[in-house]
Amino acid sequence: MTDLAETVDRAFAAALYAQDDAGLDTGASVLAAEPARWGGVGRELLARGESYVRQAWERGWQPADVLRLVRRDLDERHIRITGDLIAGEARRYARLPERWIGVEVWWTGDQEYADRLAQRERTDRFTLATAFLEVLRLLIRLPSIEPVGPLPGDPLDEHEHAHIEPRMLGRIRALLAKAEATTFPEEAEALSAKAQELMARHTVDEALLAARGGRPAQVPGACRIGVEPPYEEAKAVLLDAVATANRCRAVWNSAFEFSTVVGFESDLEAVELLYTSLLVQGTAAMTRAEAAQRAGGRKRTKTFRQSFLLAYASRLGRRLAETAEHTASEASDNLPALVARDVAVTSRADEMFPKTTTTRLRGATDHAGWEDGTAAADAAHVGGRGKPLPR
Questions:
Q1: Under a CB-based contact definition with an 8 Å cutoff, are residues 249 and 346 in contact?
Q2: What is the tens place of the pLDDT at every residue in 22-57?
Q3: How far is CA 161 from CA 179, 189, 217, 222, in A?
Q4: What integer pLDDT is reported at residue 385 of this predicted model?
Q5: Assign residue 122 a region: left if phi > 0, alpha if psi is -120 to 50, beta otherwise?
Q6: What is the C-alpha separation between 106 and 103, in angstroms, rounded?
Q7: Residues 86 and 66 sit within 8 Å (Cβ to Cβ)
């Protein structure tokens, strides 16, 4: 009887390294032809899949990045299988890095995984084997990218990362949640402004505390934020504006649908919160604008939505820049500390991305979409101390 490892080797040789999809059918057939040893095949696949996942982490990827790519290129079954591999690999570590997506193991033992997987997916062995091999093929083809944090199992970071204080973080989240829920632009403006005020104050206080030696040495870190279609160019512009306003730097990777944001930890948290909220607000405003256009007898199109979001991002970028300048001017006594913080972030970003290119955006060709998007950005205004700035 052929050794299971040899069986899996033959399947992998056929499926994972071939340039066409015909090898997938061959590899899946090899695996599915072992019904009496299907549990053992599943155990072997799981073990090898976990090793491929680890290799992805070593090449700079994180769970959210991999799942985003699987969601784009494959389907829901593949997402679930990828989650299984991430969960299985994560069992090796007592502690996972920050921002690491934790996926729970739902099967009771490696030997039972194949049978439990078949029950969950309600399909045949050949289809399961094909999906599994497709996931593994995607994993082994991942290129190396810039790492943004430690790997699972690495020693603890010697530098302390200051987070937004939990009580303040709760207040910011509550304010932004209310801004997203309201349909009144003035109320959303006031709520978002207050949230941005709290974020800006925290940055100033943290910079001053570090300059006075009241906090252990810190270094800038990085995180990745998904920037997915549709209208990914406008979303990337919006994220860049939010990052810049919060003293961070953003670099967009259009091929893999994320931006890497470099900054101090509390500022990264602020960027994640504000960007997510403004994107929700912008999408809701776009939906309302479309409804108003349709009520007026005008058919709205993809061009309208693209123009709307691009105008929304462009206008918010200018207003967030004004807000950042306003906040810095109010903290003029602390300006050297803020400058030192900016220099550290820029240096770290240049170290991570020594070569970047600019992207020419597709033009906004729908005038109504541009006008409505600009108006929505003004309604979502975030200003220092809650006071509107000159327009």
A1: yes
A2: 899 999 999 999 887 888 888 899 999 999 999 999
A3: 29, 31, 9, 11
A4: 36
A5: left
A6: 9
A7: yes
Rounded to 5 degrees, φ, ψ at 96 are -110, 150
Q: For residues 206 and 220, what is the distance between their CA atoms, to the nearest angstrom?
A: 13
Q: Give the type of residue at 225.
A: I
For 384, which DSSP code? G
Using alpha carbons, select from 289, 293, 307, 286 the residue that is nearest to residue 365: 307
Q: At what angle do helices 265-295 and 302-330 cross, to 10 degrees?
A: 140
Q: Do 223 and 268 touch, CB atoms closer than 8 A?
A: yes
Sign, CA dihedral 149-155-159-163, equals positive
Please give the structure tokens belonging to residue 114: 């194949």
Q: What tokens appear for 184 in the block?
A: 């009144």
CA–CA separation, 9 and 37 (whole Å): 15
Locate all alpha helices (DSSP H) within the chain, ordered by sequence. 4-15, 22-32, 38-58, 63-73, 76-90, 113-121, 125-140, 166-181, 185-211, 232-245, 265-295, 302-330, 335-352, 367-379
CB 42 within 8 A of CB 115: yes
374 CB-near residues (< 8 Å, 6+ apart): 311, 312, 314, 315
The first and second tokens of residue 301, run together, are 């199109």
What mean pLDDT is reported for the chain? 83
| Distance from C-alpha of 276 to C-alpha of 280, rounded to nearest angstrom | 6
- CA-CA-CA-CA torsion sign (69, 72, 74, 80): positive
> What pLDDT, in 10s, does the model give residues 51-97?
999 999 999 999 999 999 999 999 999 999 999 999 999 999 988 98
What confidence score (pLDDT) does residue 232 get?
A: 93
Distance, in Å, from the CA atom of 123 to the CA atom of 29, rounded to the nearest integer, reads: 15
